[in-house]
Task: inverse folding
């Protein structure tokens, strides 16, 4: 198997290794998981970490150009880590704090369904809708009449 690793100067660096497979009587043939990649990724963990740092610091459209990869492959990395972080959210202590307001829910779209989805998101992560005293939105009438 081959995985993309951090560049060596301006050259792409690939790690290639023979990954053993085992045959289990109960589960069939399974491949050993290697410690330098996450399951089903074609990138090393260090490459993914570098990609996430770049995405945090610059426009997402610039990052694939710098890393010489497609934006689709970059989005697969980003969405994996966003989902992983979102799944671990604990919103039970969420309160309004004007000096340090976290983003806890963001989606494309607007309308009453978006607000219902947000309430479901809060409940799924042990939050309470009663604790939300202010929101940031684009002031679209769709939130009221949609």
Result:
């Amino acid at each position: 198997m081959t995985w993309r690793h951090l560049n060596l100067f301006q050259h792409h660096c690939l790690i290639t290794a023979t990954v053993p497979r085992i045959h289990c009587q109960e589960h069939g043939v399974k491949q050993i998981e290697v410690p330098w990649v996450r399951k089903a990724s074609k990138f090393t963990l260090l490459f993914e970490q570098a990609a996430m740092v770049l995405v945090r610091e610059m426009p997402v459209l610039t990052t694939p150009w710098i890393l010489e990869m497609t934006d689709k492959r970059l989005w697969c990395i980003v969405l994996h880590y966003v989902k992983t972080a979102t799944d671990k959210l604990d919103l039970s202590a969420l309160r309004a704090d004007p000096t340090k307001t976290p983003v806890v829910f963001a989606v494309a779209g607007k309308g009453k369904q978006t607000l219902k989805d947000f309430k479901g998101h809060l409940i799924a992560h042990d939050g309470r809708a009663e604790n939300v005293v202010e929101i940031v939105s684009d002031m679209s009438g769709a939130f009221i009449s949609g």
About this structure: Helices lie at 45-57, 63-67, 71-87, 112-124, 142-145. The first strand starts at residue 2 and ends at 8.
